[in-house]
Amino acid sequence: MVALFTFRKLGDMVELGLLKKIDVLSSLTDHDLEDFGRHITPVHLDKGSYLFYRNDKSAGLYFVSKGSLQIIIDNEANKEIIVYTILQGDIVGEMTLFDNFARSATVAALEECRLYKIRNSKFIELMGVYPAIAINLSRILIDRLHAANGMIERLGMMDGNQRVAHYLKALIMREGKLDNAWYCLPRKPTYRHISQRLGVSEKTVYRTVQSMLKDGNIDIQGRKLMIKQGFLDSIH
Question: Exposed e or buried b for every residue in 101-134, given b needs 16+ CB within 10 A?
């Protein structure tokens, strides 16, 4: 009853418009979406907040109707790897759909996000009712497998300097704020923290940061780290 009330509270037309933006639900009719909407619960995330952490118990999956999120993996050596970015229309948490294992990655909001949550068992049940959902989900999983393979190849080709730059970009996009063409991170990470996260030496981190400072691409003001928007956009 709670999910039903929340769904109806904002109005059918508004909610249907948002649900139509979800890729895995794109083949459903308005009538089907209304039925599907009775089983979901809206979730709001502020920028920089976490949807769930790696090794958390699975409690369902999520559809992103607004905003973007970052998928992060911490390996056994405590090295942080940014896998990919989840955008509006994507699904999150599908890896534990059938086995209910612990979460395999951490998910953080890059901006204010609106999502819909559904229990795994209910989603599996609805895939039986609406086979188009299962077909769309299969396509999405295949696309993500290709994206993951590409990420692994790119990561293997990066040197220490590039990995530091990509880490800072991911961090500033997740937790920073844009102000007059500069992104500001209130608390800059230490060289040791970055070194441990990426598996590179502190000397490499220091050298990379000093090079960025010399080129005017970043600025350090006390505990704040400032990065030029143009420089951030150039990191691919």
Answer: eebebbbbbbeebebbbbbbeebeebbeebeebe
3-state secondary structure of 12: helix
- Total Cβ atoms within 10 A of residue 183: 22
- Domain(s) labelled CATH 2.60.120.10 in the chain stretch across 2-156
DSSP letter, residue 179:
E
pLDDT tens string 106-115: 898 988 999 9
Concatenated DSSP letters of 36-94: HHTT-EEEEE-TT-EEE-TTPPP--EEEEEES-EEEEEE-TT--EEEEEEE-TT-EESG
**Helix (H, G, I), strand (E, B), or coil: what is residue 218?**
strand
pLDDT per position as a tens digit, 124-144: 999 999 999 999 888 888 877
Listed in order, the ranges of the chain carrying CATH 1.10.10.10 are 160-234
Fold of 2-156: Jelly Rolls (2.60.120)
Tokens of 185: 């991170």
Q: Which amino acid is at 110?
A: L
> Cβ distance 156 to 205 under 8 Å?
no
- What distance in Å separates the CA atoms of residue 177 and residue 115, rounded to the nearest whole number? 22
- A 10 A CB-CB count for 184 gives 17
The proportion of the chain whose per-residue pLDDT surpasses 90, expressed as a percent, equals 21
Report the CATH fold assignment for 160-234.
Arc Repressor Mutant, subunit A (1.10.10)
